[in-house]
Design brief:
Blueprint lengths: L49 E4 L7 E3 L9 E3 L2 E3 L7 E3 L6 E8 L14 E5 L3 E5 L34 E8 L2 E3 L2 E4 L2 E6 L2 E8 L22 E2 L7 E9 L6
Antiparallel strand pairs: 1-15, 2-5, 3-4, 4-15, 5-14, 6-9, 6-15, 7-8, 7-14, 9-12, 10-11, 12-13
Bound molecules: magnesium ion.
């Protein structure tokens, strides 16, 4: 059926059922994109986001050790690591997604290298985007702030000063398996404070300390895990949106 929004005398696009400027192509869903954060307050998530942490409750999170209630400290609009209580993770299983989160390293600067404001954002609880205070704090490059830990340094060091809120915006595509066989590795794009630090980077496998790990079969969705590395790192405003194709 012809549409007065576009053209029907144009060529069909390769790999598509639609023509150039096809007015019958589905319109993008309308969403409200929310608002940006500033140092004083977290912004509002996109209207179609799954909110994982809005600063008011830890009910969506559990201890990674045993699934019991998350023991991190809940304060005015953020959570903070309670050293020794262990990593925490979402009860929600995240598919391939756009993930937004904000974190702050302790204002009190102590320790150096990996000992300063260490935490981590683990996609599928296996693939770490490093959280570390690398403002005037060198460490091994593949372990610096926003590194894909043990694999790829960030393209630049975009750290803000300790105590300031910083953002990670992550596009995550998890690995896919056919039985035991890897058919697609994981890819990640990361923006640190709005700056691209990884651009559709192919992960070697799960991340770890001092070793190289191989992919092992896993489901296409998994929890988001935050690391207790003994430092008083804070998090706020965590949300995600499934990554979908054009016609979904
Ligand atoms: Mg870490």
């Amino acid at each position: 059926m012809a549409s007065n929004l576009g053209y029907d005398d144009t060529p069909v696009l390769p790999g598509s059922q639609y023509k150039v400027h096809d007015g019958n192509r589905p319109q993008p869903r309308v969403i409200n994109p929310g608002t940006s954060s500033n140092q004083e307050a977290a912004g509002r998530p996109s209207s179609d986001a799954t909110v994982l942490f809005d600063g008011s409750s830890l009910t969506g999170w559990a201890s990674s050790n045993d699934g019991s209630a998350a023991q991190w400290k809940l304060e005015g609009g953020f959570m903070e690591v309670v050293p020794g209580t262990g990593n925490i993770q979402t009860k929600e299983q995240l598919p391939d997604c756009q993930l937004h989160l904000e974190w702050a390293a302790p204002i009190e600067v102590k320790g150096e290298s990996q000992g300063r404001g260490n935490s981590g954002v683990f996609l599928m609880a296996l693939y770490e985007i490093q959280v570390l205070d690398c403002y005037d704090n060198p460490t091994y490059p593949d372990g610096t702030t926003a590194a894909i830990y043990g694999q790829f340094p960030p393209l630049v060091n975009a750290c803000r000063e300790p105590g300031e809120w910083q953002t990670y915006d992550i596009l995550w595509e998890g690995p896919r398996f056919n039985g035991d066989k890897l058919v697609r590795p994981a890819y990640v794009t990361v923006l640190h404070n709005g700056i691209v630090v990884h651009n559709h980077t192919e992960l070697i496998g799960p991340t770890t300390h001092r070793q190289i790990l191989q992919y092992a079969p896993q489901p296409p969705a998994g929890p988001l895990m935050l690391q207790d590395h003994g430092d008083l790192v804070r998090y706020r405003n965590i949300w995600c949106r499934p990554l979908k194709g054009y016609d979904e």
